[in-house]
Specification:
Length: 185
């Protein structure tokens, strides 16, 4: 199966959340009148790790979208069979017309990336910008990132490019279909 992927550069991500905001805008996850900060849904989040002791501190940031898992726990958990992994792209999608709002997927996802639309009674999440990628465009996060920290493409080709550039894929972060990489020190 072909697997589309994001390759996230741990050296370039500065944790600015521009991608998070661009994603929210693109997917209509902004409800300025009714939402409070912290209650606005998000399809990807920023995590970071700080190392060292003052004044010698360093911080590494990265983004966590849906990992479009190989054997997705959300698919197994959904009693309505509303979640599918597309054979052409490897994208894991929640089919809104089949979602019965049972929330089992939210409990099952080990990455905590599924959102719930209480008004519609449906789960929703990152679909790697399904509509955009079928038009030959990049996902919004990869387009918006000011530091070019997110690459998009077919996973095996991304891996070959990273290998050719001498990058190190961080295996424990890249267990599913997204890749996390850095320049070896
Ligand atoms: S991936 Fe890019 S846009 Fe997103 S937080 Fe990191 S630097 Fe900012
Ligand atoms: S990260 Fe969560 S929502 Fe995405 S495919 Fe894996 S289990 Fe499903």
């Amino acid at each position: 199966m072909k697997q589309l992927s994001l390759a996230i550069d741990l050296d370039r991500c500065i944790g600015c959340k521009t991608c998070v905001v661009a994603c929210r805008n693109s997917h209509g996850l902004v409800d300025h009148e009714n939402c409070m900060p912290g209650e606005i849904p998000y399809y990807l989040r920023v995590e970071s790790e700080r190392k060292g002791v003052y004044p010698n501190l360093s911080e590494t940031s990265w983004v966590v979208p849906c990992q479009h898992c190989k054997n997705a726990a959300c698919i197994k958990a959904c009693k309505a069979e509303a979640i599918v992994k597309d054979a052409e792209t490897g994208i894991v999608r929640i089919l809104a017309d089949k979602c019965a709002g049972g929330r089992d997927c939210i409990e099952a996802c080990p990455y905590g990336v599924i959102q719930f639309d209480a008004a519609a009674g449906k789960a929703h999440k990152c679909d790697l910008c399904w509509d955009r990628v079928h038009m030959g465009e990049k996902p919004v996060c990869a387009e918006a990132c000011m530091t070019d920290a997110i690459r998009f493409g077919e996973k095996e080709i991304l891996k070959m490019q990273l290998e050719a550039e001498g990058k190190e894929i961080v295996m424990k972060m890249s267990a599913q279909s997204m890749l996390y990489f850095r320049t070896p020190v």
